[in-house]
Amino acid sequence: MFLNSVYDSNSFSFGLGGSASARCAAIEAELCYLPNFSGREITVQSEGRCVLITGYVETEIDFYRALNIAHDIAGADKVIFRVSVAHKATA
């Protein structure tokens, strides 16, 4: 993960004890730096104690990449993941 490479993992914790807005910012940063990520209109916002992620991706691989990042940062029990796979139309 991008942020993990910037900060020493022993001194930086993504979700443990952090605020929901900090978790949202960390997830947005990770998604922004994913190579070849097909996410469109991805929004990350705080919903109470949970993180709500909405938008579209073009491949199932990107769906699971985004889901894994969200789970790693916020915790699986604190993620509401409403991302759809919208395959590109071929002409």
What does this molecule look like?
With 91 residues, this protein is α+β, with helices and mostly antiparallel strands. It is built from 3 helices and 3 strands. A 3-stranded mixed β-sheet has the order 1-2-3, with helices on one face. Strand 1 (40-47) and strand 2 form a beta hairpin. Helix 2 (20-32) packs antiparallel against helix 3 (60-74). The chain is elongated and about 40 Å long. Mean pLDDT is 83; it is low at 7-12.
- Helicity, in percent? 25-40%
From the N-terminal CA to the C-terminal CA, the straight-line distance is 35 Å
Alpha-beta content class: alpha+beta
Number of helices: 3
Beta fraction: 25-35%
Number of strands: 3
Mean pLDDT: 83
Biggest pleated sheet? 3 strands, mixed
Which descriptor suits the 3D outline? Answer: elongated
**Unreliable segments (pLDDT under 50, ≥5 consecutive)?**
7-12
Output the helix-strand order: HHEEHE
Largest sheet strand order: 1-2-3
Question: Over all CA atoms, what is the radius of gyration?
Answer: 13 Å
Short description:
The chain is α+β, with helices and mostly antiparallel strands and 91 residues long. Helices cover 36% and strands 25% of the residues.
